[in-house]
Amino acid sequence: MTDLLLPILHAAAEVMLSRPALAGKEYDAGGFATQHREMLVDALVRVPALRARLRRDLLIDRDQPNLQAVATLLLSPDGDVVRAGLRLAEQLTKQEDARRTLRKRHQEKVDDLRGKLEVARGRHEHADKALQSAKGALADAEKRAEELDTQVAALQRRLHDPRSLASTLLAVLQRTPDTADGGPETRDPRNLRAEPEVRSEPPLVLAAQTAGITPEALAAALQAIVTPPRPVSAPPRVTVSGERHLRVQPLGGADEIGGSSVLVEAGTTRLLVDAGLRPGDPALPPRDIDQALTGPVHAVVVTHAHTDHCGYVPALVERLPNVRIMATPETTELMPRMWADSTKLMSERERLHRRWGADSEVLYRRDAVEAAVQRCEEVPFGTVVRIGDLTVELFPAGHILGAAGVVVQAGGERVVITGDISGFRQETVDGYSIPDSAREADLLVMESTCCAEDHDSRETRVRDLVRAIEEVYTTGGRVLIPAFALGRAQELAMIMRKHLPHVPVLLDGMAADVTRSFERITADRPSPLHIFGDSVARAQRPADLDLFTSGVVITTSGMLTGGPAVQWAARILPEPRSALFLSGYQDEESAGARLLRLVEDQASHLSVNDHGVEKDLPLRARVEMMRLSAHADKRGLLEIADEVGAREVMLVHGLRHRQRGFAKVLEVRGHAPVTTGRWGRD
């Protein structure tokens, strides 16, 4: 309550307390004024001398007009005026109290409305975040649905194509217990039974017996559907097979990593081993692929499903509609997924460039992927396939599921092309197995990705990775491992399940989709791959980005050039207790390579591009390279060269300065390295 009399009564109390009668007593003027209010009011009315003294000594703030008015009346020499001032003070006090009450209620309403506004704003922000998350999830779902539609449409076209069906059936019938790859476990001596196994007849023999014809006739009939005999308009030219010299020309991935392609010719037959994309934005075709298109190309033999070896195949099919695409059954099943992802990335880039008014051409679209799938032929390991004047045989190359080396033969000459190759056992695939047909070949075309490196044993590298992850996990952090979707992601997940079963693991993005493919492809094997389950699950974005606070996230892209890895890195890199472990090759221009350089320079931030948006990420997390290469190192490559024992060796799929040094090592070892380029007699 506002009391306009109180300042005047307080001053009157001070005057009265200064009198000799009250001297020495412990009185507080404010307390005295409150306790003796009526006495002080009566004194103001009855004692003119008190009013006169207060008129002289009392100072009233000019900013208080009501108090000034009341003081003027109360301190008047006229007693009637003083009594009128008391009545005015009472009225003004009531009015002031009423105004104060109204102001308080108004403020309470304002505070209440502000609180409701803050709640509404928070709900709006939450709803907006939920909406953005839903849009992101919907976009991911739409992209995945588009990729699946592409694969389904391609497979439907294949199912309605007698040539494709005959190719698949022929591949299945040609598999035998000796050539079928049951996975690493089936080759482990510890899993072999002591008693002799009961072996059944090969499927081709059983099918031929059922049909009442010879296996050769059945195989020939199916092969005639796959490659119908050409009509002969003139007597065929007699050619001596010994004159069909092999000619080899690397068209991409010669002294660089990516865009692999090798042209092999004999007589009038020309085939490509691989047709991959060069990494970058945009992805580019093999450097000299147009040289192959100066004449007919009868087939493309794909060593494995990594995009740098198979990514350009759909574009070739658009340019060469009748070309045959040949690969192992596993690679044949994995390639459509990789091609669909490439079309998605190229389409996104095209949309982004158009938004900014720039020109951008995609290398191929969905219809090209469907056509490429329809042209695929499955070739099991160990099966010899004739392509015009050439024969082709695939052998296990390790590296990833379905990866193959190639033996090409014509006119008594043989060329072995390793593709990407490794000799050590991994969790998802065994090492290479060189066939007798490859030994003492005329030329070995060998990859050289790691030709200058001496890797620690696989066991040591796995142990180091497991120890590092355990250190982060026990301190409550999380680990991001950007990984290649095909091969590396599945290998990492299997390592986690085996060595750290108590640590939660999430697979995200394309890595999760390819993992499902791995499980499906190996489902009928004696030892199928079980990757999901127990501690390994699929990430649920965007919720898990913040809710998954401790464990391991394995996702694409392996070089941090985009994809879910960037979204995870944006949250994990600023966390001091967390870590980011790079696990594979990093192109010099990639964000992953830049990250390693920044960490070495003790920089504070990393700039990455996420769907055209530049993001600056604080660098507080632990960052290390934990390389689990699926390529043979220098020692492994020397062992391959020794085992093949070719007359000459050509190095591809590596960096030029490293190839030069390794070529000298090969010479010391007794091999004959040749210049990476055209080889053979015309």
Secondary structure layout:
Elements: H1 6-17, H2 29-35, H3 37-46, H4 48-57, H5 65-74, H6 79-159, H7 162-174, H8 184-187, H9 203-211, H10 215-226, E1 247-252, E2 261-266, E3 269-273, E4 299-301, H11 307-310, H12 313-319, E5 324-327, H13 329-355, H14 366-375, E6 376-378, E7 384-387, E8 390-396, E9 404-410, E10 413-417, E11 443-447, H15 458-474, E12 478-482, H16 488-499, E13 505-507, H17 510-521, E14 536-538, H18 543-547, E15 551-555, H19 564-572, E16 579-582, H20 591-600, E17 605-610, E18 613-618, E19 622-625, H21 634-644, E20 648-652, H22 656-668, E21 673-674
Parallel strand pairs: 3-4, 4-5, 5-6, 10-11, 11-20, 12-15, 12-16, 13-14, 13-15, 16-19, 20-21
Antiparallel strand pairs: 1-2, 2-3, 7-8, 8-9, 9-10, 17-18
Helix pairs in contact: 1-2, 1-4, 5-6, 6-13, 6-14, 7-9, 7-10, 9-10, 12-14, 13-14, 13-17
